[in-house]
TrEMBL record:
GO molecular function, one term: nucleotide binding
Residue ranges of every copy of the GFO/IDH/MocA-like oxidoreductase domain listed in the record: 147-262
Gfo/Idh/MocA-like oxidoreductase N-terminal domain: residues covered: 8-128
Stated name of the protein: Gfo/Idh/MocA-like oxidoreductase N-terminal domain-containing protein
Record family assignment: Belongs to the Gfo/Idh/MocA family.
Annotated organism of origin: Canna indica (Indian-shot)
């Protein structure tokens, strides 16, 4: 694949499992290159480079996060650290002048995220969270259908569901089940995607109220393993979502309007890397004997040469390049979307803590 002559040079802080996917994505993106992997353990950084087939002569193993941030050869950092460490290291990255690709959930609460975003604004660096499906070309194509008032009409309801059945090792040892590392549990991990998909479908209009669904499941440490919520808007729109570490792998999104409906069965990670599908129906009805639909919903397949995580890196690097090479300013689109997602997540968590009482969402 052709590359630009002056690609954005990335460092990675930490060797989390998801960093393997993003390291590959940086290698696939035509305008990015991985130059450093940092860990608090130098041998761990070296093993990450070796295990992922990276060129040890081109990618430096670094034995501290601070050293990555002080490296003048690093333009941007990807931070996949546990959520409890995001505020510290994301702020440090911004203060070091490093553009910030931050894994989701972005923070433990909106107040922490506000600290991160304030640091990014103060130091003129680009912020983006790691919600990869946003960058799949299918997402833009689905937006075209939802924006067609004749075919879709007015938005009425949204339902999102992301679950996977974690194995016993995950449920006992993964950072996402540890209260001192990722206290948001399934709500922060899988629920982030559900909330983002709902906001995306609503064109980022914040709901006014969150009401947690009964039946939240916590582990012995009090971390959420399964939960859900309804979200309400003043004009009558309603959304629901369910997220879980203890249900079968499911990634469903349904968006229903007055004239049409859209359905996706793999919205977070497509069934296949190079193509993704969705169905859309408008003015659907039963046939005369009510034995079938007439017409049936149409199926749409969108192909891509780059996987969605590489497209994410490519878009992030494009914005960083504009700042670096053309004295551009950071794009505020992604910080705004991240903050709205965090606000809704905070309200859902508060409703859970308050026994499923309604919680107002205030921007």
């Amino acid at each position: 694949m052709a590359t630009t002559t002056n690609p954005i040079q990335f460092g990675i802080l930490g060797c989390a499992e998801i960093a393997r996917k993003v390291a590959r994505a940086i290698g696939l993106a035509p305008n990015a290159v991985l130059v450093a992997v940092g860990s608090r353990n130098l041998d761990k950084a070296r093993r990450f480079i070796a295990d992922n087939g990276l060129d040890a002569a081109a990618v430096r193993a670094i034995g501290s996060y601070e050293a990555v941030l002080s490296d003048p050869g690093v333009d941007a950092v990807y931070v996949p650290l546990p959520t409890s460490l995001h505020a510290r290291w994301a702020v440090a990255a911004a203060e070091s002048g490093k553009h910030l690709l931050l894994e989701k959930p972005t923070a433990l609460c909106a107040a922490e995220l506000d600290r991160i975003l304030s640091a990014c604004r103060s130091h003129g660096v680009q912020f983006m969270d790691g919600t990869m499906w946003m960058h799949n070309p299918r997402t833009a194509k689905m937006r075209e259908y939802l924006s067609d008032s004749a075919r879709f009409g007015q938005l009425k309801t949204i339902h999102s569901h992301f679950s996977f059945a974690a194995d016993s090792d995950f449920l006992q040892n993964d950072i996402r089940v540890k209260p001192d590392l990722d206290a948001l549990g399934a709500l922060g991990d899988a629920g982030w995607y559900c909330i983002r998909s709902i906001l995306w479908a609503a064109d980022y209009e914040l709901p006014k109220k969150a009401i947690a669904l009964q039946g939240t499941v916590n582990n012995k440490a009090g971390v959420i393993m399964s939960c859900g919520s309804s979200l309400l808007w003043e004009d009558g729109k309603v959304a629901t979502f369910k997220c879980s570490f203890i249900g079968h792998l499911t990634m469903e999104l349904s968006v229903v309007g007055t004239n049409g409906s859209l359905h996706v069965s793999d919205f977070v990670i497509p069934f296949e890397e190079g193509k993704a599908s969705f169905s859309f129906g408008s003015d659907l009805a039963f046939n005369e004997l009510v034995t079938g639909w007439q017409p049936p919903p149409s199926k749409h397949i969108v192909t891509t040469d780059l996987p969605q995580e590489a497209l994410m890196v490519q878009e992030f690097s494009r914005m960083v390049g504009s700042i670096r090479d053309s004295a551009g300013k950071p794009d505020d689109k992604w910080p705004v979307i991240s903050r709205k997602t965090q606000l809704v997540l905070d309200a859902v968590r508060a409703s859970i803590d308050q026994g499923c009482e309604p919680v107002e969402i205030v921007e």
